[in-house]
Amino acid sequence: MTNYVAGLPAFLSYFAIGLGCYAAFATIYTRMTPQSETQLIKEGNLAAIVAFLGALIGFSLPLASAAAHSVSLLDYVVWAAIGIVIQVLAFYIANFTMKDLHGKITDGNVAAGLWGGGIAVVVGILNAACMTY
Fold it and tell me: What is the pTM of this model?
């Protein structure tokens, strides 16, 4: 039975760090946006939900790649931080390519939410693929 759970400490370490990285990313993301995602989501704003989930999914892809390819916990944290920086860049790309993106999301424009979330996922896929070292 011991052999079956030999990797459990490493799993728990990577998992806990991953959850911390999600919290850090979500905090950074929600502070960057002019709208209050939490409030908009509580109000049922589908555009805000789609944009925020797209951002989380976009970040989860490089985070998963970093976990799978890292050689140590420090390596994992460094690549997770790089993933956060690239996803912040995705936020600015989405904002730059659609005029008044955040105003549209606040107004419930689902197309704007899909655009913002979609850009985050697309950049996240590329980000994750590039983390093969």
Answer: 0.89
